[in-house]
Design brief:
This protein is an alpha/beta fold and 194 residues long. It is built from 6 helices and 4 strands; from the N terminus they run E-H-H-H-E-H-E-H-E-H. A 4-stranded parallel beta sheet has the order 2-1-3-4, sandwiched between helices. Strand 3, helix 5 (136-150) and strand 4 form a beta-alpha-beta unit.
Length: 194
Amino acid sequence: KHMSQGKTGVLIVNQGTPDSPNTPDVRKYLREFLMDGRVIDIPYPLRWILVNGIIATFSAPKSAKEYKKLWEERGSPLKFHLSDVNDMLQDGLGDEYIVKFGMRYQSPSLESVLDELKAANVKRIIVIPLFPQYASATTGSVNQKVGEIMSKWQIIPPVTYINQFMDHPRFIEAFAANGKAMLDAKEYDHIIFS
Protein backbone atom coordinates (compact mmCIF):
# COMPACT_ATOMS: atom_id res chain seq x y z
CA LYS A 1 0.00 0.00 0.00
CA HIS A 2 1.66 3.26 -1.14
CA MET A 3 1.45 6.56 0.70
CA SER A 4 -1.27 8.89 -0.50
CA GLN A 5 -0.21 11.98 -2.39
CA GLY A 6 -0.20 15.27 -0.46
CA LYS A 7 -3.01 17.76 -0.65
CA THR A 8 -3.18 20.83 -2.86
CA GLY A 9 -2.71 24.13 -1.07
CA VAL A 10 -4.88 27.05 -2.15
CA LEU A 11 -3.76 30.49 -1.04
CA ILE A 12 -6.27 33.30 -1.46
CA VAL A 13 -4.84 36.78 -0.98
CA ASN A 14 -6.23 40.25 -0.51
CA GLN A 15 -4.50 43.61 -0.13
CA GLY A 16 -4.55 43.88 3.63
CA THR A 17 -5.95 45.86 6.50
CA PRO A 18 -4.57 47.43 9.66
CA ASP A 19 -4.63 45.20 12.74
CA SER A 20 -6.87 47.77 14.43
CA PRO A 21 -8.40 51.15 13.50
CA ASN A 22 -6.06 52.94 15.90
CA THR A 23 -3.55 55.44 14.50
CA PRO A 24 -0.34 53.44 15.30
CA ASP A 25 -1.69 50.31 13.53
CA VAL A 26 -2.97 52.36 10.59
CA ARG A 27 0.42 54.08 10.32
CA LYS A 28 2.19 50.68 10.37
CA TYR A 29 -0.15 49.39 7.62
CA LEU A 30 0.32 52.52 5.46
CA ARG A 31 4.11 52.27 5.78
CA GLU A 32 4.21 48.62 4.70
CA PHE A 33 1.72 49.16 1.87
CA LEU A 34 3.17 52.37 0.47
CA MET A 35 6.84 51.33 0.77
CA ASP A 36 6.16 48.57 -1.78
CA GLY A 37 8.02 49.69 -4.91
CA ARG A 38 5.18 48.32 -7.04
CA VAL A 39 2.66 50.61 -5.28
CA ILE A 40 4.68 53.84 -5.38
CA ASP A 41 7.08 53.45 -8.28
CA ILE A 42 9.76 56.00 -7.42
CA PRO A 43 13.36 55.47 -6.21
CA TYR A 44 13.61 54.07 -2.66
CA PRO A 45 15.12 57.18 -0.96
CA LEU A 46 12.37 59.45 -2.32
CA ARG A 47 9.67 56.87 -1.53
CA TRP A 48 11.01 56.57 2.05
CA ILE A 49 10.87 60.35 2.59
CA LEU A 50 7.42 60.62 1.01
CA VAL A 51 5.89 57.71 2.95
CA ASN A 52 7.59 58.09 6.35
CA GLY A 53 8.01 61.86 6.39
CA ILE A 54 4.68 62.93 4.94
CA ILE A 55 2.00 60.31 4.19
CA ALA A 56 2.25 58.03 7.25
CA THR A 57 2.73 60.99 9.57
CA PHE A 58 -0.17 63.14 8.37
CA SER A 59 -2.60 60.65 6.77
CA ALA A 60 -2.66 57.99 9.49
CA PRO A 61 -4.85 59.93 11.97
CA LYS A 62 -7.37 60.82 9.22
CA SER A 63 -7.36 57.26 7.85
CA ALA A 64 -7.79 55.86 11.38
CA LYS A 65 -11.02 57.89 11.75
CA GLU A 66 -12.33 56.36 8.51
CA TYR A 67 -11.32 52.83 9.56
CA LYS A 68 -13.17 53.32 12.87
CA LYS A 69 -16.37 54.01 10.89
CA LEU A 70 -15.94 50.71 9.00
CA TRP A 71 -14.77 48.49 11.88
CA GLU A 72 -17.32 46.00 13.19
CA GLU A 73 -17.57 43.69 16.19
CA ARG A 74 -15.76 40.96 14.23
CA GLY A 75 -13.04 43.44 13.29
CA SER A 76 -12.05 44.61 9.83
CA PRO A 77 -14.76 43.74 7.26
CA LEU A 78 -12.10 42.94 4.66
CA LYS A 79 -10.51 40.41 7.00
CA PHE A 80 -13.61 38.68 8.37
CA HIS A 81 -15.31 38.47 4.98
CA LEU A 82 -12.12 36.95 3.55
CA SER A 83 -12.13 34.45 6.43
CA ASP A 84 -15.74 33.56 5.54
CA VAL A 85 -14.80 33.12 1.85
CA ASN A 86 -11.90 30.92 2.96
CA ASP A 87 -14.26 28.66 4.93
CA MET A 88 -16.78 28.44 2.06
CA LEU A 89 -14.03 27.62 -0.45
CA GLN A 90 -12.61 24.95 1.89
CA ASP A 91 -16.09 23.40 2.24
CA GLY A 92 -16.63 23.54 -1.54
CA LEU A 93 -13.27 22.00 -2.47
CA GLY A 94 -13.23 19.29 0.19
CA ASP A 95 -10.52 17.31 1.96
CA GLU A 96 -8.04 17.08 -0.91
CA TYR A 97 -7.35 20.81 -0.54
CA ILE A 98 -6.04 23.03 2.23
CA VAL A 99 -7.35 26.57 1.78
CA LYS A 100 -5.64 29.44 3.58
CA PHE A 101 -6.05 33.19 3.31
CA GLY A 102 -3.37 35.82 3.70
CA MET A 103 -2.86 39.52 3.27
CA ARG A 104 -0.20 41.11 1.12
CA TYR A 105 0.27 43.70 3.86
CA GLN A 106 -0.13 42.98 7.59
CA SER A 107 -1.81 39.89 9.00
CA PRO A 108 -2.17 37.05 8.43
CA SER A 109 1.12 37.56 6.61
CA LEU A 110 1.89 35.64 3.44
CA GLU A 111 4.96 34.22 5.14
CA SER A 112 2.98 32.77 8.06
CA VAL A 113 0.32 31.27 5.80
CA LEU A 114 2.86 29.81 3.36
CA ASP A 115 4.69 28.31 6.36
CA GLU A 116 1.44 26.56 7.31
CA LEU A 117 1.11 25.12 3.78
CA LYS A 118 4.76 24.07 3.86
CA ALA A 119 4.27 22.34 7.24
CA ALA A 120 1.24 20.52 5.77
CA ASN A 121 3.57 19.18 3.04
CA VAL A 122 1.25 20.18 0.19
CA LYS A 123 2.10 18.70 -3.21
CA ARG A 124 1.37 21.95 -5.05
CA ILE A 125 0.11 25.46 -4.36
CA ILE A 126 -2.42 27.56 -6.25
CA VAL A 127 -2.11 31.29 -5.50
CA ILE A 128 -5.24 33.35 -6.13
CA PRO A 129 -4.85 37.10 -5.60
CA LEU A 130 -8.43 38.35 -5.31
CA PHE A 131 -8.07 41.12 -7.89
CA PRO A 132 -10.12 40.34 -11.01
CA GLN A 133 -7.77 42.24 -13.36
CA TYR A 134 -3.98 42.05 -13.29
CA ALA A 135 -2.05 45.10 -12.13
CA SER A 136 1.59 45.29 -11.08
CA ALA A 137 0.68 47.01 -7.77
CA THR A 138 -1.77 44.26 -6.73
CA THR A 139 -1.45 40.83 -8.35
CA GLY A 140 2.15 41.48 -9.42
CA SER A 141 3.13 42.44 -5.88
CA VAL A 142 1.46 39.34 -4.39
CA ASN A 143 3.16 37.03 -6.89
CA GLN A 144 6.54 38.65 -6.31
CA LYS A 145 6.22 38.34 -2.50
CA VAL A 146 5.13 34.68 -2.70
CA GLY A 147 8.12 33.96 -4.96
CA GLU A 148 10.52 35.73 -2.57
CA ILE A 149 9.23 33.76 0.42
CA MET A 150 9.27 30.39 -1.33
CA SER A 151 12.73 30.98 -2.85
CA LYS A 152 14.15 30.33 0.63
CA TRP A 153 12.55 26.87 0.87
CA GLN A 154 14.67 23.76 0.29
CA ILE A 155 11.84 21.98 -1.54
CA ILE A 156 9.57 24.19 -3.64
CA PRO A 157 6.35 22.54 -4.82
CA PRO A 158 4.85 23.46 -8.19
CA VAL A 159 3.05 26.81 -7.96
CA THR A 160 0.22 28.04 -10.17
CA TYR A 161 -0.56 31.76 -10.13
CA ILE A 162 -4.05 32.88 -11.15
CA ASN A 163 -3.24 36.28 -12.64
CA GLN A 164 -6.74 37.46 -13.52
CA PHE A 165 -10.29 36.24 -13.80
CA MET A 166 -12.33 39.26 -14.88
CA ASP A 167 -13.42 37.52 -18.08
CA HIS A 168 -14.28 34.14 -16.54
CA PRO A 169 -17.96 33.37 -17.30
CA ARG A 170 -18.75 32.39 -13.68
CA PHE A 171 -17.26 35.65 -12.37
CA ILE A 172 -19.32 37.67 -14.88
CA GLU A 173 -22.47 35.72 -13.91
CA ALA A 174 -21.88 36.39 -10.21
CA PHE A 175 -21.18 40.08 -10.86
CA ALA A 176 -24.36 40.37 -12.94
CA ALA A 177 -26.44 38.55 -10.30
CA ASN A 178 -25.20 40.92 -7.57
CA GLY A 179 -25.95 43.92 -9.79
CA LYS A 180 -29.42 42.64 -10.60
CA ALA A 181 -30.24 42.14 -6.91
CA MET A 182 -29.22 45.74 -6.20
CA LEU A 183 -31.17 47.09 -9.16
CA ASP A 184 -34.25 45.11 -8.13
CA ALA A 185 -34.04 46.60 -4.63
CA LYS A 186 -33.62 50.26 -5.61
CA GLU A 187 -33.61 52.55 -8.62
CA TYR A 188 -30.36 54.41 -9.28
CA ASP A 189 -29.62 57.49 -11.40
CA HIS A 190 -26.15 56.28 -12.28
CA ILE A 191 -24.18 53.05 -11.91
CA ILE A 192 -20.39 53.12 -11.64
CA PHE A 193 -18.32 49.97 -12.04
CA SER A 194 -15.02 50.13 -10.18
